[in-house]
Write a structure and sequence with these properties.
- With 638 residues, the protein is of the alpha/beta class.
- It has a domain at 524-626: GMP Synthetase, Chain A, domain 3 (2-Layer Sandwich).
- The protein has 19 helices and 29 strands.
- The strands form eight sheets. The protein has a seven-stranded mixed beta sheet with strand order 5-4-17-16-18-19-20, sandwiched between helices. A seven-stranded mixed beta sheet has the order 12-11-8-6-7-14-15, with helices on both faces. A four-stranded antiparallel beta sheet has the order 21-22-23-24.
- Helix 11 (317-329) links the parallel strand 16 (307-310) and strand 17.
- Helix 2 packs across helix 3, helix 7 crosses helix 8 and helix 17 (535-543) packs across helix 18.
- The relative contact order is 0.12.
- Bound molecules: adenosine-5'-monophosphate-propyl ester (PRX).
- Adenosine-5'-monophosphate-propyl ester (PRX) is lined by residues 271, 317-318, 393-396, 418-423, 443, 504-506, 518, 521, 527, 532.
Amino acid sequence: MTNKKNPGDLTEVLSAAEKIYRPSKKIISQANVKDYEGVLKQAAKDPLAFWAEAAEELEWFKPWHKIIDISHKPFYKWFTGAKCNLAYNALDRHVKSKIKNKIAILWEDETGRSRSYTYLELYHEVNQLANALRRQGLKKGDRIAIYLPNLPEIAIAMLASVKIGAVHSVVYAGYSAMALAERIKDAKAKILFTADGSFRRGKAVYLKEIADQALKECKTVKRVVVVKNSQAKIKLNPQIDIWYHDFIKHEPTEAACAEMDAEDPAFVLYTSGTTAKPKGIVHVHGGYMVGVFRTIKWVFDLKGEEIFWCTADPGWITGHSYIIYGPLMAGITTLMYEGVPDLPQPDRIWRIIEKYKVNILYTAPTLIRAMMKYGTSWPAKYKLASLRLLGTVGEPINPEAWKWYYKYVGKNRCPIMDTWWQTETGMHLITPLPVTPLKAGSVAKPFPGIIADVVDKKGRSVPAGKGGFLVIKNPWPSMVRTVFNDPARYVKTYWREIKGRYFTGDVAYRDRDGYYWIQGRTDDVLKIAGHRIGPAEVESAFVSHHKVAEAAVIGLPDAVKGEVIKAFIILKQSVSPSEDLKGELKAQVRKTLGPMAVIKEIAFVDKLPKTRSGKIMRRVLKAEELGLPTGDTSALAS
Ligand code: PRX
């Protein structure tokens, strides 16, 4: 669970005598990487050679001159001079082999509907859509906004966009109209993909209505392509809207792949930071495909025959890298489930694993903790023998949840890959491999080729057992290239805090065996059920209510979701606090940001702790709330 640290207040962490979970002989004998320590050492000696070797496993239209160009650091460039395409590696190249008849996507939704696509079928449909996009006038570099639920069409839209060299911006379908509009405007998207509706917890969500509301403010969007996914009776405006099936209907099933420069952007994905404006994280074709391909193959030990289920949503980076691009590049079957894990009853996850004979389950600690609450009788009813490996991501996992996952899901035989990474890193950076001895709750060691460190404010390594800032010391291929439209923000956010190091924003410690333990964020960024939410975004949602003068939000520990939000509100003069008003304010945040920004508690206050320059000191609020020392308060205004 998240345990935020005050950056100036690095504490000694007692290292408990942990149990080591060693891989079985079977796991070791099957593993793609058997000599873990040897591979780490070799890659550390020459990370560039390591990544060049990884890149050679993919197809390039033209080879690179240089593996890395550091002349404009921190704007690193990888595989310079090379030509390639991410979608070509995810799809086109498989159609030349027998993989073409394999199932690429298996899909099921909450209501029990299911569909599947072979690689060849997926390739044909992506080509049809690529042709339709070109006919629409879309070209290299144009931005395509995608606001779709977890449907095969989201993958198809992403792949078609990348295939023609456009840049997709997927906006999680749980975001509100305002959040969608903000992202479309920043990216200046020319086209939007959405659906008529979807279901969540049995309730219809009318996405097209939300999209229409967002588009009132977005002048750049000239076409809206609508996937028919529900029985919702919606009106299309023939000037701008078109059904997805009509859009692709007469298009040929072959389409040329755009030859992209390795450094051309493939997508932008917005994520939250400390300010109210989300950052457009830019990822490129070449380096991204190398990093994601190498990590999925090594961390999940892929052989080519797996049924892989990542329970994230394609709207987040986990979905981009490990539902869509990673599994497809590896030529395996990716399972997409559009729905919640406990409908119609809390066995849905286990039922799906049995039904599709899932080999690898990659999920989030929040989901594991929610399943724990329902009890072991649910997984016990199902045959989970197909599982070979487990994974977790997105937030720290508490040892108790780790052990439950290991025992009741993995039946003491499936190693758990606790993968630490970020929207910005594109791929896993600190993670075990299947042969790594595991400790419950630790993300083990940096992936081969990655050099991490735990440092103090001045960038000096701190000794084992001491908490500090988690930094990455060398560039990696799938790293964020810039913040869309804001290169200065890229430099300031990631490269200014600790000179010459990539600043992750996380606090961690390393134990005597070199294992990393992630303790949470150094900033006030919230992690609610693994979703990254900026406190300033929530505060500005509150302040947009006419009765609110000021707001501050903090995350409080929660046994299931990791964190929940508590808000401190100063009301405008002459406004009286009431329970009804609390309900109104909660609804306001939901309307502004979307349903994932759930406010657990609201307190009406007269004053907020602030620095002399007027910045709210959220950590003081948090410390007071949790009964902890407030740390350095010298900046606090009296
Ligand atoms: O705090 C870390 C936490 O999630 C943050 C990144 O969030 P986001 O960009 O939304 O990406 C999530 C999925 C990759 C990190 O800064 N985090 C991610 N993975 C872990 C984690 N914390 C602990 N353990 C992890 N395995």
